[in-house]
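Entry 12.
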Amino acid sequence: MTPVHHRSHVDDLLSFIRASPSPYHAVASAAQRLEKAGFRELRGTDDWTGTTGGSFVVRGGALIAWYAPEGMPAHTPFRIIGTHTDSPNLRIKPTPDTGSAGWRQIAVEIYGGVPLNTWLDRDLGISGRLALRGPGGTTDTRLVQIDEPLLRVPQLAIHLDRTVNEGLALDPQRHVAPVWSLGDAEEGALLRRIAEAAETDPAEVLGWDLMLHDIQPPGYLGADREFVVSSRLDNLVSVHAGVTALAGAATAAEESAYIPVLAAFDHEEVGSGSDTGAQSPMLERVLSRSVTARGGTQEDWSRALAGAFCVSADMAHAVHPNYAERHDPDHRPLPNGGPTVKVNVNQRYATDSTGIAVFASACERAGAPWQPFVSNNAMPCGTSIGPLTAARLGVQTVDVGVPGLSMHSARELCGADDPGHLAAILGAFVTSG
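Predicted 3D structure (tokens):
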């Protein structure tokens, strides 16, 4: 990509992030982009027989999309891009109304590995989905997004806690009840406010999956705007790159020897153990059904899987200038140096030498750089959906990701060139002949 194309890609990424404060919004944003590229949604209860072209399946905060050209053999191998839609945050409890000392507050639960100090003194909105009462005992869902400064987790003044900077440790039992008004906690007040934003009656709301998000918009940083700063870069950078690659692959799929697939899972930040996570059978069942829908047999399915390959794309750590000793001394990725290939011999990442070769080949075709990443031996290594996908499907997998700072913070940073590099590499990966 040229610098102009990189900037255009990031401008679109920023729009994608702004529209995607929750996993459910991220899926809706991805689906909208895929539909513009000619993909159509399939439901589990539909008859998929004879389905070709671009298709996608949505379940909650997860999306599986693929492109199967007409006439492509049913045993054609898959090229899978694995990502996740969720990010660490604060999620609203089922009984949210609480308060203390004359303040109206809401009860929240910590989701994933949240550095709590990054959520202090930030203007917070609410987003997610409501489960509504439908006709005849059915239920429906509706997205809600309130980009207003409704809430705030206030920092205790340093005059009242002179030890606040000692290790920056916070007690999660005392620091995550955001304030949002004065007065006693009035039961149902929060639900009424959210239902109003969703244009529905509070009495019709039977449940919710709601979370807080920083309303500060994403943007550029640096003397030459060489960085991107935003909430949820982990992992919407990869979701957006995957959608871009898949939409582009649809125009070149006729010449490809593979069927391109995007798997955007939910709940990666808490272990992926849900019906929409990488440990679930969702991807396996969707891909298997796509084979049989095109007339394939069990043997065709086995052949398609045996020849498949997955790139698990998640954010990675750039070397931190203030904590360089926390990184491996010989593996120190920098922003704008290209995506990293993440290696861990204990299989916290699924990368091996042949996986590196496949990814490096895609980088060469895309004309994009890449960097190796290995954790410091003295530090516990993170993980991603790569090992889960590899173990679940028996598919060879390589773990990669855009390097950044402040991972899991309410405000993360990455290079402005790297998202475009990742999208170009993924595009080359899924369309290689």
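Annotation: The longest strand covers residues 139-151. Residues 83 and 264 are 5 Å apart (CA to CA).
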